[in-house]
Amino acid sequence: MKPLPLIFFSVALAALLSACAGPRFPVNAATVDELIARLGPPARRWPVEGGGERLAFTTAPRGIHTWMAVADGVGRVRSVENVLDMPHFARIQPGMGEDEVMHEIGPPYPYWTVTYPARNERVWEWRYCDVWNEPARFDVLFDTDTGKVRSTMSLTERQSLYGSGRRSEWCSP
Question: What is the pTM of this model?
Answer without folding.
Answer: 0.77
